[in-house]
Amino acid sequence: MNSPSRVISFVNAGHFVDHYSMLILAAAVIIMGPALGMAYSELLPYATPGFVAFGAGSLLTGWLGDRWSRRHMMLIFFVGIGASMISVGFVQTPAQLGAALFAIGIFASIYHPVGTAMIVSYADRLGREMGINGVWGNLGVASSALVTGVIGQYLGWRFTFIVPGVVTIMIGIAFAMMVVHEDRKGSKQAAAQARVAKKDMWRVILSLLIVVIAISTTFNAVTVALPKLFAERLADLTKSPALLGVIAACVYVFGAMTQYTIGRLLDRYSLKTVALPLSFMLAPFLYLAASLSNLPLILVSIGIVMGAFGQVTVNDAMVGKYTSEEWRSRAYAVRYFIGFTAAGASVGLVAWLYEQGGFVTMLYAFAALCLLAIAAAIILPREIRTPAAA
Questions:
Q1: What single string gives the DSSP state of each residue in 112-136?
Q2: What gap in Å lies between CA 22 and CA 321, rounded to an integer?
Q3: CA 147, CA 141: separation in Å to the nearest integer?
Q4: What does the DSSP 8-state code read for residue 383?
Q5: Cα-to-chain-centroid distance, residue 387
Q6: What average pLDDT does range 15-25 have in this prediction?
Q7: Is residue 97 over pLDDT 70?
Q8: What is the pLDDT of residue 390?
């Protein structure tokens, strides 16, 4: 049998790698553009196929995780995404760049339906472990901006992909040696932890569908656009790519703390009790950010990432609480297929909105979209906790 703490540690590391790899381009594009002779709005759309694959691939990978082996799928994830990152460092044309980023998206699609299901399967306290897992993903987002900025400034943009690729393959080798395949069906986390009245299940599905589309699109748009937004709006503070990466990383740390806090709250209170007040955060902060710069923008950006990352934790816990072990990877696959497909479209949407009216237009548009999160939280029914959970 595997040690639950060891399995969860590797899965948490995978969450870090997953988000880190998908956002390297968002920070590297600042120095890649001049090197490749392409503008920001021209280069960014090459990431779109990878983000679409990130979501679309989850249907297959989630099915394989349930029907074949979650452990084997995670091994493929580590090695495949590491090799794909390395390949980006050797591209010579925009078409090759798009293909390499697409490969990253394909392997990245393994993590969420498979890794999140493993967390639920091995977790003793679901909310706490989901919160900690969210922190690791958030640290991946933050570190991507920070490390990419530093490596890019001193070694060039190609090494911003090669170095993390090598490290990821090494993690995969350690995972292969220390974690074995194990059938978790029948374990204490196999059954759903909470339920709603059967007549209200349509409200759960509708709420999840609405909030996943709204939050996934906004989450991805914000994480992709934030380095460029800071480069434009913090010009009076710094023009250094490395320092901009440090500022972005510090902002994301607040998102990490929020995910941990939300995870702990989910162990004590119902989903609706936590989700409803949280849903009111994003829209006003996005609206305010449209007209701010320098320190006020940094402070408002902290509110944005706290709202976005907190919502992601709620969404993941919703699926984990209401599904049983044998269906869990597939349930997460559908959740992430919808979410990441919408998120993939957000990359092109960011580029288009930026061309239309800069970040003012983009932030106003996503503020309006986040009003849907409030509606989703209101729709969500009260849950009936199972005797085991109680």
A1: HHHHHHHHHHH-SSHHHHHHHHHHH
A2: 27
A3: 10
A4: P
A5: 32
A6: 91
A7: yes
A8: 38
